[in-house]
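Memo to structure team: turn this sequence into structure tokens by end of day. - J.P.
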Amino acid sequence: MSKIVGIGACVMDTLINVPYYPKEDTKLRAVSVKPAGGGPVATGLVAAARLGEETGFIGVLSDDASGDFLLGDFKKYGVDTANVDIKSDHRAFTSVIWLSAETTSRTCVFDKGDLPPLVLDGTKRAAIENAEILMVDGNEMDAAVEAARYAHEVGTKVLYDCGGLYDGVERLLAHTDIMIPSEEFAMGHTGADNAEEAARRLYELYRPQVVVVTQGKRGGIMFDGEKIVSYPIYPAKVLDSNGSGDVFHGAFAAGLAKGFDFLKCCHFSSAVSALKCTGVGARESVPDFDTVKKYMKENGYEL
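Reply from structure team:
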């Protein structure tokens, strides 16, 4: 059984590398175009698998070309798909992502598709019960809330990748153990003026074990109910930043599964995310554990 399971978005991405963002109503030749698997939880599970942990996706995919690609991509990286329901006559969650070489940023346009919502059955509940960590991202909200409640009943920790301010998000936050919001989410949800105050408010509101606020190129902060601690961004020559946040969350789950404390997980996840950005593709560029360990040592941090 998988130590880390996840419920959330699984997206068929089309990555378009461009030298720069074009002006409206003009033409620009792409440097390259490639398909890739995406989605916060889905990519996080791949990252954790690349780092040596057993992972499994719980969700719904279509039986069209996009769904076939996503299922095959999971299998390529060793993510268990026994709890994936395949549905006919539906559109998958898809996106088109432009990656600018000039700014090293990404711009995404997506279609959420029309797949039916996930329904938890006995085998899916068993997968949650036998896991150490349940990853969620705010997609499949009703099933995620139900799963998080069940996880708490059976002793499985819930790690929430808080990226989108979805309707009813407080229902999921209330059942979260490891809360990892972006700075935008943390401040937007709490109304705080800065990340430190937002972390404190999230902790007071929902009482997770830890709040880790990601701050992009500035690294981030961690609050465990006692003190605020900063963690750094690790140096990297960025080729593709798309999916770096998803990889961070997957690496955090992998770190927890390896027995790291929360601060060590922050450093580990930051390093994994940085290394991922040195290649193109959110999933294929995730390093293995030995590579991360060596890279962190070279940058003054011993795992």
